[in-house]
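Reopening this ticket.

The earlier resolution said the output was attached, but the attachment link was broken on my side. Pasting everything inline this time so it's all in one place.
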Amino acid sequence: MTTRRAACSCGELEVVCEGEPVRVSMCHCLECQRRTGTVFGNQAWFRREQINSVSGNSTQFTRHVEAGRWVTFRFCPRCGSTVYWEAERIPGLIAVAVGSFADPMFPAPTLSGWEQRRHQWVEPLCDTVSQRSN
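Inline output:
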């Protein structure tokens, strides 16, 4: 079984995941754009039981999405990198920022959400399903 380690920029906050993600997605919503400082966010969703360990301190921020649900992000208080989060809409799963794995061979997203917020110069993914993910 594959073991993957995701960490923040300074290495203080780390998540260890076992096995393949349930899904890998990208989100074009304005909140993800602000959170990442890029034009979309990429996340790998794992079942809670696939998370072997979380080490280091984290700070959390909970925001409410348009549908009235919540998403709680956990990030490193030292460097500010968002490493993982949970969404009320998807109970039992934990999202880990794909970039936190620092693995160019990580599986590509198969879902793309909030396409209506996609920057016009970003090419749509091939063979993806557009959905509102918040």
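Reporter confirms the inline version is readable. The domain at 3-22+42-110 is CATH 2.170.150.70 (Metal Binding Protein, Guanine Nucleotide Exchange Factor; Chain A). Residues 71 and 87 are 4 Å apart (CA to CA).
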